[in-house]
Task: inverse folding
C-alpha cells in the first residue's frame, strides 16, 4: 500500500472512532476558550499578526545575511555552529559528539526538528539513554508513539490512559488526578536532569543581532536541560532566525496567544553560549545544529516561501476540521495538519502530495495563522503541482477533462446533467453507485424533481 | 563536512533570494492598550499567573516579610544570590543560607533567593540573567523568591529587551530568562497543573 491509501485507511478508521473524536473535541474546546481569552489581551490582534508576519518576512528575505550574523556572534562567544544539509548529517554530528564525550544519558526538551531528523533512535543505537522531558513528549515516549500534535503531543490520551501507563512504568501512582501524575513524572525526570551529560533542545527563534537562541517552555524542562548537563546541543531549522532581539517583544506574546492562549509562555529563555568564566553554572559546551533538510528548496519556491515563516504554534492544526476528525497520527508525518500538509511534500517529496487533498479549503487555518501564511492556497497549489508532475491516474485526468468540456458550454451542461440524473438513478437501482465512497457514510441528498433551469424557464424563480 | 555543507546551504539560500518576494507592508499601530499604572498592572498580572506579589516599604518591611516566607518553608538548604542588596535583607534570617559565591544552587535546595534585572508590568514577569544566582538560581528549587525594587518596573517585554540591550546584558551573560509565573503544564487533558519541573511557588517582593 502506498502512503496515500494508508492515509485514507487510517482516516476512515479514526474518523469513525467516536471516543477519539470526543477526546479531541474536549481538548480543542479547552484550547479555543483559552485562545479567545488570550487574543482579548491584544488591543489589535490583526496588527499583532501583521507585525509578526512582517518580522518573519524580513527574516526570510534576508536569511543568508542573518544566519551569517547569528553564526558570527555565537562563534565569538565560544559556541559551535554546525550546518547540516540533511537529517543524516545532523544526526551524525550529534551522535559523534555524544560518543566522543562519553555521553550515557541525554535529556531532551521538546523539539520537532529532532523528530524530523529521527535523532533519538540514532543516539539509542550508540547505547545512550534518551529521555524526553516535556510531559506530553515523555508520555508518548513511554507509549513508543510519535507526538500526536506539535504543541500538545499527548492530546489524544485521557487522564485514565495516562494513569494506567504511569502505574505500569513509574512508581507511586495511585490515582488518575493530573496533579499526582505530574508529580510522579517530576520525581522521575528530576533524577534524569541531574545525571544527564547532554541536554538537547530545539529553538523557537534564533536572534541574529544579539546572537541568541530563544527557547520557550511552560514546564521549565527547557530551563533544566540547558542548565544542568555539561553539554547543550540546540537542533533547529535555518528558518528560525529573526533580525532583532526586540522583535521578541511581539513574537513571544503572539506565539503564546496562538499556541496556548497564554499572555506569554512561563519560561522564555535566551542563551548566547556556554557558561562564561564568571558564571557559576551552565553547560561548558554549546553546539548549534542548523538543519536545512529541504528548507532552502522551499525558499526557492516564491509562491510558497511564506511557509518558512511558521513559528510552530499549532493553531492551524486545532482550527482544521480535518485534523479534528482524523487526528495527528493519521498524517504519519512530523508536522501534521495544514502546515504539515504544506511542508511535507517539500521536505519529503511527492509521495506526500495526498495530504494537500485532506482539506476542505475552508481557510480557517489561514485565518488563525499568527504569521499570516496563506495555508489553504498553498494546499491548492500543491494539488496543482501534483497534477502537473503527472502523479495522477489516467482515468482521473480523463474525468477532469470531460468535466471541463462539459462546464464550458451551458447547453452541454444542461443535457449532460439531465443524463447524469437518470444514470445515477439507474446505477443505484442496479447497485452501481459512482458516489459510493461518499454515500457509504452519508445520506445521499434528494435530487429535486425540477432543476433550477426548468424553474427559471417556467418563470417560477 | 561542516564547511562544505555550510557553503552549499548558504549558496542555495543566496541563489533562491535572487528572486525577492513582494514586500509585506506593515503600518505600525498600537497592538496593546497603554498601561496607566505599572505597579497596579504588575500586581494584577501576578495574580493571574499564580505569582505571589508582595509590596513593601523599605528594608525593614522586606526583612520582616522574608522572615515570614522563610518560616513557611520546609527544612533544608536555602540558596541566595551573594550581593549586598540581598545580604542586607537576609541579615535577620535565622537559618543557614548557601551563598552563590560558594557555588551553584543544588538539587536539594528548598528555595532560592535572587534579584531580578527588571519587572515587566504587562505580563507580570521577572527578568533575570545568569548574574542573578546563575542559571539554576531561578529554576532548580521548588520555591523561588525574587527581591526587586519598584524602580525596576518596565511596561512590557519589548521595553525590557530594549533596556537589556542598552545595558549590554546579552554580551555580559550567557543566559537571560523572562519568567512569568510558576512552572506549569496542561499536557494532560489541557488541564492546568501548577508545578511541573520548576518552582511550584514564585514570590516577588517589590520594595518601594
Result:
Amino acid at each position: 500500500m502506498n502512503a496515500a491509501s494508508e492515509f485514507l485507511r487510517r482516516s476512515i478508521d479514526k474518523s469513525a472512532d467516536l471516543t477519539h473524536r470526543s477526546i479531541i473535541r474536549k481538548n480543542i474546546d479547552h484550547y479555543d476558550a483559552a485562545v479567545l481569552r488570550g487574543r482579548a489581551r491584544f488591543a489589535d490582534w490583526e496588527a499583532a499578526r501583521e507585525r509578526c508576519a512582517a518580522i518573519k518576512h524580513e527574516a526570510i528575505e534576508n536569511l543568508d545575511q542573518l544566519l551569517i550574523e547569528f553564526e558570527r556572534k555565537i562563534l565569538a562567544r565560544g559556541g559551535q555552529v554546525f550546518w547540516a544539509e540533511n537529517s543524516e548529517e545532523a544526526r551524525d554530528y550529534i551522535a559523534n559528539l555524544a560518543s566522543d564525550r562519553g555521553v550515557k544519558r541525554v535529556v531532551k526538551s521538546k523539539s520537532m526538528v529532532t523528530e524530523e531528523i529521527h535523532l533519538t533512535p540514532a543516539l539509542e543505537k550508540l547505547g545512550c539513554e534518551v529521555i524526553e522531558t516535556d510531559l506530553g513528549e515523555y508520555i508518548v515516549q513511554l507509549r513508543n508513539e510519535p507526538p500526536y500534535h506539535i504543541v500538545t503531543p499527548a492530546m489524544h490520551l485521557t487522564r485514565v490512559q495516562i494513569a494506567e501507563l504511569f502505574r505500569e512504568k513509574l512508581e507511586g501512582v495511585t490515582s488518575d488526578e493530573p496533579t499526582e501524575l505530574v508529580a510522579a513524572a517530576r520525581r522521575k525526570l528530576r533524577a534524569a536532569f541531574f545525571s544527564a551529560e547532554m541536554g538537547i533542545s530545539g529553538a523557537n527563534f534564533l536572534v541574529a543581532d544579539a546572537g541568541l537562541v530563544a527557547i520557550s517552555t511552560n514546564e521549565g524542562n527547557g530551563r533544566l536541560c540547558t542548565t544542568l548537563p555539561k553539554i547543550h546541543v540546540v537542533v533547529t531549522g535555518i528558518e528560525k532566525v529573526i533580525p532583532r532581539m526586540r522583535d521578541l517583544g511581539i513574537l513571544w506574546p503572539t506565539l503564546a496567544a496562538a499556541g496556548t492562549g497564554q499572555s506569554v509562555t512561563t519560561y522564555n529563555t535566551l542563551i548566547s553560549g556556554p557558561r562564561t568564566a564568571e558564571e557559576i553554572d551552565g553547560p561548558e559546551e554549546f553546539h548549534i545544529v542548523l538543519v536545512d533538510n529541504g528548507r532552502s528548496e522551499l525558499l526557492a519556491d516564491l509562491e510558497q516561501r511564506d511557509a518558512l515563516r511558521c513559528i510552530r504554534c499549532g493553531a492551524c492544526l486545532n482550527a482544521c476540521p480535518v485534523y479534528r476528525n482524523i487526528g495527528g497520527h493519521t498524517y504519519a508525518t512530523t508536522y501534521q495538519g495544514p502546515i504539515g500538509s504544506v511542508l511535507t511534500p517539500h521536505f519529503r517529496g511527492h509521495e506526500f502530495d495526498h495530504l494537500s487533498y485532506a482539506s476542505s479549503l475552508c481557510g480557517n487555518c489561514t485565518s488563525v495563522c499568527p504569521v499570516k501564511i496563506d495555508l489553504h492556497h498553498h494546499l491548492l497549489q500543491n494539488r496543482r503541482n501534483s497534477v502537473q508532475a503527472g502523479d495522477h491516474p489516467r482515468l482521473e485526468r480523463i474525468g477532469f477533462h470531460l468535466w471541463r468540456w462539459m462546464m464550458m458550454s451551458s447547453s452541454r451542461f444542461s443535457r449532460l446533467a439531465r443524463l447524469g440524473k437518470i444514470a445515477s438513478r439507474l446505477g443505484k437501482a442496479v447497485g452501481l453507485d459512482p458516489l459510493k465512497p461518499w454515500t457509504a457514510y452519508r445520506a445521499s441528498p434528494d435530487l429535486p424533481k425540477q432543476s433550477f433551469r426548468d424553474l427559471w424557464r417556467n418563470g417560477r424563480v | 563536512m561542516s564547511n562544505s555543507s555550510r557553503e552549499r546551504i548558504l549558496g542555495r539560500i543566496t541563489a533562491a533570494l535572487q528572486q525577492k518576494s513582494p514586500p509585506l507592508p506593515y503600518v505600525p499601530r498600537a497592538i496593546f492598550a497603554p498601561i496607566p499604572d505599572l505597579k497596579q498592572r504588575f500586581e494584577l498580572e501576578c495574580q493571574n499567573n499564580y505569582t505571589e506579589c508582595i509590596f513593601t516599604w523599605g528594608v525593614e518591611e522586606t526583612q520582616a516579610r522574608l522572615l515570614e516566607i522563610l518560616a513557611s518553608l520546609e527544612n533544608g538548604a536555602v540558596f541566595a544570590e551573594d550581593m549586598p542588596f540581598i545580604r542586607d535583607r537576609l541579615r535577620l534570617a535565622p537559618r543557614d543560607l548557601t551563598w552563590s559565591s560558594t557555588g551553584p544552587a543544588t538539587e536539594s535546595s528548598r528555595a532560592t533567593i535572587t534579584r531580578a534585572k527588571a519587572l515587566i508590568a504587562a505580563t507580570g514577569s521577572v527578568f533575570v540573567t545568569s548574574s542573578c544566582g546563575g542559571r539554576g538560581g531561578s529554576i532548580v528549587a521548588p520555591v523561588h523568591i525574587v527581591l526587586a525594587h519598584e524602580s525596576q518596573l518596565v511596561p512590557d517585554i519589548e521595553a525590557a529587551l530594549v533596556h537589556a540591550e542598552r545595558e549590554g546584558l546579552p554580551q555580559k551573560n550567557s543566559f537571560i530568562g523572562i519568567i512569568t509565573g510558576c512552572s506549569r503544564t496542561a499536557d494532560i487533558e489541557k488541564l492546568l497543573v501548577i508545578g511541573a519541573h520548576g518552582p511550584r511557588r514564585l514570590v516577588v517582593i517589590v520594595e518601594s
